[in-house]
Design a protein that fits this description.
Radius of gyration: 21 Å
Number of strands: 0
Order of helices and strands: HHHHHHHHHHHHHHHH
Largest sheet: none
Oligomer: single chain
Number of helices: 16
Helix content: 55-70%
Amino acid sequence: MQSTDRAVLTERIFAGALVLATGMQIAESLVPRVPIFPWLRLGLSWAILLPFLLSFGTRPAIALFLARNVLSLSYGGQPPSTFLISSLSGVLSLVLTGNVIRWLVDRKWFGWIGASVALAASFNVLQLAAVTAILVGHSGNLFQLGPILAWSAVSGTLVAWLARSFATPTLWDDVDRAVPGHAANLDRTAATTPWVRLAIWSALAIVPFAISDWRLLGIYSGALLLIAYGRRGFAGLRIVRQSWPYFAFLAWLHLLDTPGHFLSSSPVTAEGLRAFALHASRLCAFLLATQELAPLIPWRRLAPTSIWARGMGLALPLLPGLFPVATKAARSWWSKRKEPGRKNLAQTILGGLRSDS
């Protein structure tokens, strides 16, 4: 295989893995946190990150992890503090343990469980250290170190089982086939790049994250809705309609889990309603702007040596359709669970993404 073909293959695999990892990360966030132990989560997206690390190496795995966090921030309304602490802890964990884990697995000294538990333990301990140093400012919460290590063994084992079920010999071939070859913009040259439009839509995609007033953001997203309808009709609004699971996630996160002053005869607080309006308007504006932006970006020129940046460009058009496809694929997978030779759930979801695209 020539180097160009190999690069195209790898960036498509990165895009498919990113869609799966981000979807699992956001879906897991629907589970309420335990107040004293907020880190008590399985880390389901590591079921994709772990086989990706073992197949492609530490630097690509770091790129996938950071891209997953960026998309979780954009689509899942993740607080900036959570994004920063998670990103710092994850990068340090992969830097310190990634190559060691791959070396141990290559020599059969570590299996899936050992690799997964080691990653979970290093990530959780580093996250506790980051929270202690950055947010708490004292060592009072270090009593959680013992429970964290015990939970790392449990969660790492469960994630290893899930990762092993995903990591079939054809996993990356299935991921590659799931990413449609729609991104002609990857080969766009400088002569054909509409730089003015690119700059305008780039600014319009960034602006929502600079606005913190829910009223202004609502007006801004409303204006983009009108622009999208004027340019494409109802087809221009499809990306927002298709992304309804993300809005449902934001409603769950903010309407039902925000302390403050309760509205009369309801479990919703005024603060939660404002937080939902802010994050839902932000997501709506981001979706509409990136819908126009994604086909304009000349990925091969902006990132000539980074197949991972270009892979993220391929992932953006796929993510809005993930949860409707995943729900349909899960029903199909469950109905065929007793059939010999059936595909695993990851293959079923990826096949659904391909046909939906």
